[in-house]
Amino acid sequence: xTIGATVLDWLSIVFANLGVLILAALGLAIIFxxxxxxxxxxxEFIMVGAYATAISYHELSAPLPAAILIGGVAxxxxxxxxxxxxxxHLYERLIDSMVAxxxxxxxxxxxxxxxxxxxxxGMPTPFGPLQIAGxxxxxxxxxxxxxxxxxxxxxYLVFQYTDYGLKARATMQNDDMARSLxxxxxxxxxxxxxxxxxITGIAGGLFAPTVSIVPTLGTGFIIEAFxxxxxGGTNVIVGTFVSALSLSAIRxxxxxxxxxLVGRVVLLVTAIVIIRLLPxxxxxxxxxxx
Amino acid sequence: xxxxxxxxxxxxxxxxxxxxxLTKDFGGLRAVDSVDYELPADELRCLIGPNGxxxxxxxxxxxxxxxxxxxxxxxxxxxxxxxxxxxxxxxGISLKFQNISxxxxxxxxxxxxxxxxxxxxxxxxxxxxxxxLAQLNGLGDDIVDNxxxxxxxxxxxxxxxxxxxxxxxxxxxxxxxxxxxxxETGDLIQSLxxxxxxxxxxxxxxxxxxxxxxxxxxLHNGRLFAEGTVAEIEADERVQNIYLGKEEA
Amino acid sequence: xxxxxxxxxxxxxxxxxSPADGRLQSLVDPFEGPHTxxxxxxxxxxxxxxxxxxxAYPLFTNEYRVLVTTGFFxxxxxxxxxxxxxxxxxxxxxxxxxFFGLGxxxxxxxxxxxxxxxxxxxxxxxxxxxxxAAFAAILGYFMFYGRVxxxxxxxxxxxxxxxxxxxxxxxxxxxxxxxxxALGGYNGMTGIPSITLGFGSTAVAFEGVSMYYLxxxxxxxxxxxxRYLVNSDYGHVMVATREDxxxxxxxxxxxxxxxxxxxxxxxxxxxxxxxLYAAQGNFIxxxxxxxxxxxxxVIWITVGGRAxxxxxxxxxxxxxxxxxxxxxxxxxxxTIVMGxxxxxxxxxxxxxxxxxxxxxxxxxxxxxxxxGDNS
Lengths: 290, 249, 375
Known about the structure:
The structure holds three protein chains of three kinds.
Chain A: H1 3-35, H2 42-59, H3 64-85, H4 94-116, E1 129-132, E2 135-138, H5 139-161, H6 163-173, H7 175-180, H8 185-207, H9 219-232, H10 238-258, H11 260-277, H12 281-289
Antiparallel strand pairs in A: 1-2
Helix pairs in contact in A: 1-5, 1-8, 1-9, 1-10, 2-3, 2-8, 2-9, 3-8, 5-6, 6-8, 9-10, 9-11, 10-11
Chain B: E1 15-26, E2 29-35, E3 38-40, E4 44-48, H1 55-63, E5 70-75, E6 78-79, H2 85-91, E7 93-96, H3 108-119, H4 123-133, H5 149-161, E8 167-171, H6 179-194, E9 198-202, H7 206-212, E10 215-220, E11 223-228, H8 230-235, H9 237-243
Parallel strand pairs in B: 4-9, 4-10, 7-8, 8-9
Antiparallel strand pairs in B: 1-2, 1-3, 1-5, 5-6, 10-11
Helix pairs in contact in B: 3-4, 3-5
Chain C: H1 19-28, H2 41-56, H3 63-87, H4 96-118, H5 122-144, H6 151-169, E1 177-178, E2 181-182, E3 189-190, E4 195-197, E5 204-206, H7 208-230, H8 233-243, H9 245-249, H10 255-281, E6 283-284, H11 291-304, H12 309-329, H13 331-348, H14 353-365
Antiparallel strand pairs in C: 1-2, 3-6, 4-5
Helix pairs in contact in C: 3-7, 3-10, 3-11, 3-12, 4-5, 4-6, 4-10, 5-10, 11-12, 12-13
């Protein structure tokens, strides 16, 4: 393979991985950025989205886009319920939120196992392969990344141009101030948790045709989601994007040269290095430079 | 500005603290702007200025919690600009933070123990002494969170003294205190100064400043705006104007 | 705030204890203090009683239960390694399993290679403690001297343990054999010897019941050493660092160094636990350094009570015992019950069970829980 072809190959992998990371991390970033809690059940929200998508596909014969939307709604509703029952007691209690959501994670995985068994029928990956500039990739992974970028755009639009978005940003900056200005922060937290879970469910739905539908399918995404979010810092859009891009680039390089496992190791090492160099995350670094 | 370590000439022997063009930027905001500050030994000075003047930032630069964007700091003739906070504390700089920073969930005794155990041979004896100095007799085993605001402030002032500093920086020691408590705090600070400690106090209360200060420095928009005795500063119309928002630096 | 009454605190002439009591008390004094639960003769009596029960346990149960219980005790080492840094010094590490796993693997490699040479695992034991400690020192230096703190320490330590899991998973195949020890990739390393102290034909191997006693003795010694540490002057610095780093630094303490020291200690404790784990099961594999295991000590300590040693011990033993019991009753629902317990504790016992019990005991009965403090 020529150098050019190798680079193009690498770029296509980066592009594909970028989509996966953004999708996996975006919902978590919204919740972490807003409420300072770490949802260790995040992988299970992906799982719920994937399951709901697969179930709608098989039981309701829903077309893929509709099934994915249903996946989003399913996770969103689950998130809403958990927020009202449990999570809202744990805001600004970072460690406790981790332990509690770990408990939720155990329950959800076990429940999925009990209700649906060890494995649920999977879905075919649509569209087939794609050849661009001599590089072969799958059309679906391109679609996933485009959707991921579109979702980033959607999140941006929601935060910038909706009433909810304005109140949400105010609450993120200073919730006491927002409250004294009349914002119902309780509702904002609820809405944000729904929004973040919805996005995560969409991600799960998008992942569904590419993974086996098993109760533990979320566990493969959670670490990368975490690392992307924390390296990115509190800025949901730019932070997540820059973080996902850097980590994806390095990981793909590692994977291309040495295999998937090394790719994952390289991603983690890169995260460590970035944190060490920018101890407050990418967001704060960018903010201080501006 | 050079950042090489060097000892200044003999005229600095009685200058315990000196800054040269000390500057701190936060992104686009210049919080401290080219400040040249000098504190002769054994003096009790106040640092005043309207909100946002940069007083607390200046203190944090002195304590080492913030690194300056430009400029240098000299303590007893030695450059300390690149020293970590603990190293400055060991050389004799002590800071009482603006927000009360005692250890709320520990008892009074346990609080005092932390600074004392590094500095005193007779730890328990020294702790008892300091409890008395802070007028907290009988409260030694009380959880600090249960003390009144004023009592916590006094505890922290006394803890700052417990490391036997040469230079004591007090950031708003009378915040939230009654008139009586403020006056007593002034007495305490003056008695500390009498023990040969150089002290700089950031304060808003003009009566308090009048009570204790040998000399007053005024900061405005991060710049050193005016200096003089209390009487001179009180008479200075420009200083009055910056408080009324009428004058820019 | 005025008034100058001398408080009658320094009046030790009242209730003068007898000379014998005085000597006993002064023996126990360094192990008592505000940072541990249980500071009275009643506590130590109870402690001795429970210790006797623990020592007698193998006499009235079967070998299998002894093995299982030994396993519970070994996990306590992992919990204590986290308690020391998180509960007492405020460093939240999500990667104590790195030291645990490294300790086990290093013991395995050195042990397998030297057991036939020297007849014992003495060097392996030492290596399994000191090398993870050295690793902790390097990682700690990297983090704390770079002023990394808070959730970023959690991520770096989590990433570290996951990296180790991934690296060790990749070690299947002939080329990943160190001397006689095959690392074994994802399936792990087998044939790890038991703890064998001594040399040649006089060496003593600890297995089954003798391993149980060894673990109990080492655990008790470690517990007492840690009690001594956290109640000493150094313990005060640890707690001060946890409560307010910046303030503590301004009293002249190099908190970067304090954190480094404590973190290194936690590496040694974790490594020791890993050695015992590998020696007991004669086996170790990469998942021990994965996400599920990394979360366990966090959970045990959160449930038991973060800021006390006793909380770490009881939380770990209790949850492990419960998990074992539930798995026997119904493996399907055991995980769900565990999840519900975590939720219940976080929502209703936010300080952890031991501190909550202590506080409600003291609030209801107005007497100190497990004895008062003698300051």
